[in-house]
Design goal:
By secondary structure, the chain is mainly alpha-helical. The protein has two domains: about 130 residues, DNA polymerase, domain 1; about 130 residues, hpI Integrase, Chain A (Orthogonal Bundle). Helices cover about 50% and strands about 5% of the residues. The chain is globular and about 65 Å long. About 0% of the residues have low confidence.
Length: about 375
């Protein structure tokens, strides 16, 4: 006879509707983590490890949430530089900074970038939010201090600059460094795949799988971007389908033929002797871009994101409609795309040449107002 489900309550502790058991909280945490990208999870962990180490050294005890507002203020002034009579300074004692660096919590000596500071405060804010705790990072005065700190950094020209864009001509210079060896064929296919499909992020390139690649012609493909930063829930959208056509499709075809890849990751390591290794990491994609930039002799601060910004910038230069560009890139924010459009296309603005136009060359007629 089947046991009445209600009788199971006699064999196990009943859950309390007003709270969560440890098992339930662990399951929630696991689902939250699985739903985030690997890069996001890694950055959150690094931020929280730093907070814990800083707190232990600063206060001599183990960190506990919720943090008091004063603690967040201390974190900010410890890491945000300000102008003093002796130059730029922050409140973090040198001994603590050295210990954080020695133990690997601080990657390098010197002040923390504002973007890193803001990110670490945002991560601590998220930690409080997820646990339903009073959030000191959302205190009005804390938010005001961060805002004014950003403005101070901006006035000093200390904010991080965007990476240089790899537009069409620059990309061609990179492609010229790719020979017909297997590594050269891979890099050529990778650069064109990332750029021509709308400027794919380095994680999207590293995670690209043959399962989502469809051949639509002898050397033309459509890649279905199953999940992205702007579509983390994997919703089926028309813009998920990215065409890989023309020279980009040809390069991808050559790479697949030469490598013999028919399943699994599209882009992989090339070992000594021309043997294939495992899939590329996101960091390896960045390294490939930077190595090819160095070989091409390009001057500037380039990264994998330069392919994405370069695609958008080139689209602006060639007057591609904004909607078509966003369909390729997957951007959800018009303001973000316009930022790229305007950054390097401002010299094409006809309003910048009013002094050189025909209006000044022709005197006004008797019926025309000056």
């Amino acid at each position: 006879m089947t046991e009445n489900p209600l009788s199971l309550l006699h064999h196990a502790a009943a859950l309390q509707p007003s709270g969560l058991s440890e098992d339930t909280q662990s399951a929630i945490d696991a689902l939250m983590q699985e739903g985030e990208s690997a890069n996001t999870v890694a950055s959150y962990r690094a931020a929280m490890r730093y907070w814990a180490a800083w707190y232990a050294l600063r206060y001599g005890s183990r960190i506990q949430l919720p943090l008091p507002v004063a603690c967040v203020f201390q974190f900010i002034v410890d890491h945000a530089q300000r102008i003093t009579a002796k130059g730029l300074a922050a409140e973090l004692p040198a001994a603590i900074a050295a210990q954080l660096e020695k133990e690997g919590y601080k990657g390098k000596s010197g002040p923390m970038a504002y973007a890193t500071l803001a990110h670490r405060v945002a991560v601590m804010s998220k930690a409080h939010q997820l646990r339903g705790l009073a959030n000191p990072c959302m205190d009005v005065q804390v938010r005001d201090l961060l805002s004014r700190t950003r403005k101070a950094y901006a006035r000093r020209g200390a904010l991080a600059q965007k990476k240089a864009a790899l537009t069409k001509d620059a990309l061609q210079a990179l492609l010229a460094t790719c020979d017909d060896a297997l590594r050269g064929q891979r890099d050529r296919a990778l650069l064109l795949f990332a750029w021509a499909s709308g400027g794919r992020r380095r994680s999207e390139v590293a995670e690209a799988e043959m399962h989502y690649l469809q051949r639509v012609g002898p050397t033309d493909f459509v890649y279905t971007l199953q999940r992205s930063k702007s579509n983390q829930s994997g919703q089926d959208r028309p813009e998920n389908h990215k065409p890989i056509l023309g020279m980009a499709g040809q390069a991808l075809h050559v790479w697949l033929e030469a490598s013999g890849i028919t399943s699994g990751p599209i882009f992989r390591r090339v070992l000594k002797g021309g043997h294939l290794g495992g899939p590329l990491s996101a960091a390896a994609v960045r390294d490939i871009v930077q190595a090819r930039c160095a070989l091409a002799g390009l001057e500037g601060d380039f990264s994998a994101h330069s392919l994405r910004s370069g695609f958008v910038t080139e689209a602006g230069r060639q007057n591609v409609p904004l909607a078509d560009t966003m369909a390729m890139t997957g951007h959800q924010s018009v303001a973000t795309v316009l930022g790229y459009f305007r950054a390097q296309t401002s010299v094409l603005n006809p309003a910048a040449q009013l002094l050189d136009g025909d209006a000044l060359a022709k005197p006004a007629g008797p019926d025309q107002q000056p």
